[in-house]
Amino acid sequence: MINVKGIGHLRAPEISDLNALYALENEPDLWYLGHSKEPWSKVVLQRYLVNQPGSLLRDGQLRLILDHDGELIGAFDLYDYDPFARKAGVGLVLSPAHRGKGWSSLALKAFENYAFGTLGLNSLFAIVPSKNIPSQSLFSSGCYKLVGELADWVMRDGKMEKALFYQKVLK
Fold first, then answer.
1. Residue 137 covered by a domain
2. Cα–Cα distance list, 2 to 73, 74, 84 (Å)
3. What is the 3-state secondary structure (H, E, C) of 69-111?
4. How far is CA 97 from the centre of its chain?
5. What local confidence, expressed as pLDDT, does residue 130 receive?
6. Has residue 29 got a pLDDT over 80?
């Protein structure tokens, strides 16, 4: 487990997370953020949980759960992992009841310490839809540099939206 100062910890997903992940993955307002645009069944999610931990090297991705007092309050994803270039994308989502408390930045810092320290990554990146102001603030305040824009990158409510490309490189 990875300690998140003052909140709880980041940990591997457990079978007991099934109902919380089911709710999170089936929130239509969040589908525009990922590649999946359809509901997830409990059976598929249960298979995913049973097969954890996966292999970051094989799968190119890793999910960690943000746990607060035994409750799943968010998920952090490492994706597009490239062990040769030592880089990966980072994505996160917090349950609505826990947004706006500053917990994302604390958990992101712990996640980064793991990615840079334990995994030996040199670069993390985040692709943020241009209308997602809270995520832009999170990454900007976390010393990620805005390094580019991706035109017509995200479809939300039937309209194309640009995305902003943020990157944090170890020095």
1. no
2. 15, 14, 24
3. CCEEEEEEEEEEEECCCCEEEEEEEECHHHCCCCHHHHHHHHH
4. 17
5. 93
6. no
